[in-house]
Amino acid sequence: MVLILDTTLRDGEQTPSVALSVEQKVMIAEALDNLGVDVIEAGTAIASEGEFKAIKEISSKGLKAEICSFARIRKEDIDAAADADADSIFMVAPSSNIHIKAKFPGKSEKDIIEMSVEAIEYAKSRGLIVEFGAEDASRANFDFVLKLFDAAVDAKADRLTFADTVGVLIPEKAENIFKALKERFKVPVAIHCHDDFGFATVNTVFAVKAGADEVHVTVNGIGERAGNAALEEVVMALEFLYGIKTKIKKEMIYNVSKLVEKLTRVVVPPNKPIVGENAFAHESGIHTSAILKDSNTYEPISPETIGRTRVIVLGKHAGRASVEAIMKELGYKANPKQMNEILARIKEIGDKGKRVTNADVKAIIETVLQIKMEKKVKLEDLTVFTGMKSMPMASVKLKINGEERVEAAVGVGPVDAAINAIRKAIKDFDVELISYHVEAITGGTDALVDVIVQLRKGNKIVTAKGARTDIIMASVEAFMEGLNMLI
Ligand code: MN
Questions:
Q1: Is residue 31 a part of any domain in this protein?
Q2: Lowest mean pLDDT among 71-75, 288-292, 296-300, 417-421
């Protein structure tokens, strides 16, 4: 059993341009607790009033997880953590010459050891669990790291962390280091990795293989620079590839990932392992027909394991099987001749280098089958005001199943205002806009604008397109198309 220290709320929040409010931090902490992490590093109590408040608030929630604050080897950092009612501190001392010189100019290695011992003893006197970390340990003299850890353990540190602060560790080294640490120390040892070379997960896993008791991770791998080891990657690699258990409830991973993405506004790349939009999406015809027969053919794990569902995307590689799957979902049936016609038309769009949206496929199917579908949501009217000094504002009139709804909203721009007004009018349908993309603007200011949107309702995701010379109308059209497919 490997312990999970999640530092989404500390190292993760140090991601450039991320700042969470106290309420948002509490929401994420509660989600992490439900997910089953052992330690929540909730922030740095000394950093600001908001950080202090967030740690205090999270500590008051009675969560199962240990609540931890980051600290330097300074009395005021320890006091702030203790005053915020944290259970523990992750306290780091610089261990490489680069860090010692920059942070404590003029101090020797011996001085660092003395200051660390003093800080650990003080933290223990304030009733804190102390996880003591050697910062930049992967670029430090390993003998010094061992000496520093020896002194820390003598001073009653509860756990030790080897931090690969700038992500330069390699798996072979991680393995040797943790073998040595396990041989020498009885207290639990942890690894903290960064992803500067894309090695964060593999280094973390190799440390565990060699005996590490605890791993530092963040949801979606967010964190300083290229980020930290990703919780979802480390947990799934340990459990699925190495058979090493954690307490993480894997079926909750995807939802927590989405929550963190939403609140931090750090978008998960589509090709990100485990949680990326494409991680369980299939397009090519040969893959899709095999997947529909036996999902093991092209999926290492089933999407349900981590709480998500498979997505079949149609494109120019679309095969009969995937079109049939979509037809089934829509409740349509085609004869072989109609089917060939549908496939030919889908491929025609793809071959032109265009993205085939779900709306295109539905439109093609309905055209070929000559089905006229009444749209559930109709746009009756749209008015947008925009200017230099006034906030862009939009009002809409929608007809939903015959019922008229009128709403108005403001936005950062006219498109945002229009979409906000529509969202307001349909807020009871719980439809979420995942992505908005202006595909092609060619020619002059009167050229055709292609807008592609991705919308989600529950587990269902659709893509839809709007094509107009007016960017606001193209955006609204795309949104309405997607909406009609979802509800
Ligand atoms: Mn870090």
A1: yes
A2: 288-292
Q: How far apart are CA 112 and CA 415, in angstroms?
A: 56
Centre of ligand 1 from the C-alpha of residue 14, in Å = 9
Residue 466 to residue 215: CA distance in whole angstroms: 46
How far apart are the C-alpha atoms of 427 and 464, rounded to whole Å? 19
In a domain, 168, yes or no: yes
Say yes or no: 344 and 387 in one domain. Answer: no
Report whether 455 contacts 480 (CB < 8 A).
no
CATH number at residue 304: 1.10.238
Q: Are residues 336 and 412 located together in one domain of the fold?
A: no
Assign residue 246 the CATH number of its domain.
3.20.20.70
pLDDT of residue 434: 86
* C-alpha 193 – ligand 1 centre gap (Å): 7
Distance separating alpha carbons of residues 195 and 209, to the nearest angstrom: 19
Q: Measure 245 CA to ligand 1 centroid, in angstroms.
A: 24
> Do 356 and 385 belong together in one domain?
no
On the CB side of 14, how many CA atoms lie within 13 Å of its CA? 17
Q: How far is the CA of 183 from the centre of ligand 1 (A)?
A: 25
The predicted-structure confidence for 145-193, as pLDDT tens digits, reads as follows 999 999 999 999 999 999 999 999 999 999 999 999 999 999 999 999 9
Task: Write down the pTM of the prediction.
Answer: 0.77
Q: Token digits for 327?
A: 């037809």
Which range, of 26-35, 74-83, 181-190, 465-474, averages the lowest pLDDT? 465-474
Say how many Å lie between the CA of residue 422 and the centre of ligand 1: 42
Q: 198, 230, 264: which is the final residue of a domain?
A: 264
